[in-house]
Amino acid sequence: MDKRSYLGILLIGVAMAFVVLWSGRAEKKNAPARQQYEQALDSARAAQDSLKYEDVTVTVTTAEPDSLSPLFPALNGEEQQYTLDNGLVKIGISNKGAVPCFAQLSGYLDQQGGNIILFDRNEISLNFKFDGKNQNIQSKNLYFETIPAGNSSVVMRLNTNGYGYMDFKYTLQPDSYMLNLDIKACGMDNFFSSDLNALAVDWIQNLRQQEKGFDFEQRYTTLTYKRADKAKGKVMNVTKSTRKVTVEEPIDWIAYKNQFFSCIMIASQTYSENTALTGMAYEKGKGYMKKFMTKTHAQFDPSGSEPTQFQFYIGPNDYKILKQNSKLANDGKKIRLNRVIDLGWPIVREVNRFLIIPLFNLLSKWNLNMGLVILLMTLIVKVLVFPAQFKSYMSSAKMRALKPYVDEVNAKYPKQEDAMKKQQETMAVYSKYGVSPMGGCLPSLIQMPVWMAFFFFVPNAIELRQQSFLWATDLTGFDDILSWNANIPLIGNHLSIFCVLFCVTNIINTIYSMQQQQQAPGQEDTMKAMKWMMYLMPIIFFFSFNNYSSGLCYYYFISGLVSIVTMIYLRRSTDEKKILAKLEADYEASRNDPTKRKQGGSNMMARLEALQKEQERLQQQQKNR
After folding, report:
1. How many CA atoms lie within 13 A of 481 on its CB side?
2. Which of 59, 63, 339, 409 is the most buried (most CB within 10 A)?
3. Is residue 317 part of a domain?
4. Least confident residue range of 27-31, 117-121, 328-332
C-alpha cells in the first residue's frame, strides 16, 4: 500500500475512536440524570408496601405509627379495592391512597384476546400532598374509609383525630370514559394554615406494551400536555434516555398516551406554573414502552367551600370519542382532548380533520372490511386530486411537444460558454407558446398534504386496530407473513409484503414520471441528481417502512398503483403532435391580439427571462472589469 492508503486507514481509525469516545462521554453525561431520576422515583415510592417497576420490587419498612398523630386513624389498615363500572370501562379505586389502581376497557382486546388492561396496582402511583400546620398529608401512605354509592360512585374518607375529615369522591360518568374526582376538606381549618391554597400532585406510571410491534408502538407512546393558552397539544419526545421538561405556563391536562389508549389527568382550574415532566423509554422485552412522571400543583381550598376537581379520561384514542368526552369537562371549557392524537402539521392536520376523517367515518358505516374502506378512500381521494395531476401531466406534455424547437436551440449553441444564450432562447420558446417549466410543480405540491395526511391518520386510527385484510392480521401493525428468528440489521426479523409492493410501485411510478419529464435548459446536472434521488427513495422507504403499519403501506401501494394506471391512460390518450398543433394555432391566433394570449405560463416566463437578462448583464459587467 502507498502512503495515501496508510493515511486513509489511519484517519478511519481516528474517526472510529472518536465515535467510541464520544459515545462513552454521552453515556457518562446521561448517568447523573438517570441516577437523579431513579432517586426521584424512590422518593415517590417511599412508605409503600410494594410497588413494582422494571422487574424490581421495592419493600419499605415503616416506623411504628404514633397514636397521638392527627392522622393515626389512617396509618393502619388493609388495602382493598372498590370497583366502578359503567359498561365501557372498569376502574378500581384503592382505599390505600384513595387513587385509581386498576383500569380495564370493554370492547378492546389485548394481544391474548382478553379485555385490555391499561394499568394495575403495580404500574401506577398517584400521590396528593397537603401541607399542614404540624403534619403533612401524603395520600399514598394513608388508608381511607370506603363509603360506597353504587356502581358508578364511591367516597374515600380520610379520618383524623379531632381535625375533621377529607373526602375523595370518585364518580364514573355514564356512557363515557370520564372519571370525576372531587377533593374536599370538612372541618379541617385547624389542621391547615389559612393561607394554604394549593396541593401537590405526583403521578408515576409505566405504560404497557399493548401492540404487536414494539418499535412502532414506542414511537407513538408519548407524554402530551395542553397549555391553557394554546389550542393544540404539545408532545414531549422521549427516546432512549431520560428527558425532563419544565412547563412554565399553566396546563389544562397531561396525557400518558400509548399508540391507541390514553390516561389523561385534567385539572378543573388548570395545573399551576412550572410543572415538571419526566420520561424514560424502556428497552425491548421489558413489557413496557415508557415510564412517565409528573410533579405539579393544583388549587386547593382548606376551608372546604370549593372542592378541588380533577377528571381522568381513561380510554381509547378515538378522535370522535375524545371530542365527545371533551364536552363533559366540569367547568364547560374547551379542553380539546382530541388533540392528544397527532394528526400532523397545521395544513396536514386540517386535511385530516375536514377530509380524511369524515370520509373514513362515512365509509366505515357501511360495515365493510377495513382494507376495502382504505381502498375506497384511496380511489375517492385520487378522483379529488385528479385535476391537479392532470394539469401537472399536461404541463409536462406541452414541454415534450415543444422538444423539436428546444433541440434546435441546443444545436445552435453547442458550446458551454453559450449556455446563458441557449437558456434565454429556450425560455423564449416556452414564453412564445405560453408554457412554463414550473407549471407542473404547483399541482404536484397540492397533492402532498393528502399524501402526508394518510401518514399521520392510519397509524392513529384505532378503528384499524386488530383488523385483518388479506395476509395482514392487524392493519395498524406490520404484516409478517415472512419472518425468521434472526435479526437482520435495518430489516429486523420479518419482511412486510405490503411494504415491498409499495416500494415496487414507487420504482415503477418513478420510471414513468422520469420518462415524461422534459428538462429545462441548463438543468441537466440537476435532473441527473434528481433521478438518482428518486430511484434511491424506494430503497430508503423499504428500510423505513418495513416496521410501519401494514395499512399505511397498503394505502401507498394502492395509491401508487392508481397513479401508474392514470399515467398510462393519460400517456396513451394524449397526442403530442396534436398538442403542438394546438399550441401553434393558439400562438397564431394571439399574435395580432395579445389580449387573447393565454397567460398560463407567460407571466412566470417573463419573470424568468428578466432574471436571466439581469444575470447576463452582471456577468458581462464582471468580464469588462
Report:
1. 13
2. 339
3. yes
4. 27-31
pLDDT > 50? residue 380: yes
pLDDT at 169 over 70: yes
Most confident of 213-217, 358-362, 621-625: 358-362
Give me the chain's average pLDDT, please.
Answer: 80
- Domain contains 10: no
Maximal C-alpha separation, the chain: 107
pLDDT of 433: 76
Residues 119 and 237 in one domain: yes
CB atoms within 10 A of CB 581: 12
- Same domain? For 60 and 153 the reply is yes
CA distance 541 to 116: 33
Q: Are residues 576 and 517 in the same domain?
A: yes
Do 71 and 189 fall within a single domain?
yes
Report pTM: 0.77
The beta-strand segments (E) located in 50-174 are: 50-53, 56-59, 81-85, 89-94, 99-109, 115-119, 124-130, 137-138, 145-148, 153-159, 165-172
Task: Let me know whether 593 and 545 are in one domain.
Answer: yes
For the chain, what is the radius of gyration of the CA atoms?
Answer: 32
Residue type, 477: G
Query: Is residue 14 domain-resident?
Result: no
- Number of domains, the chain: 2
Only one residue has cell 372531587, namely 182
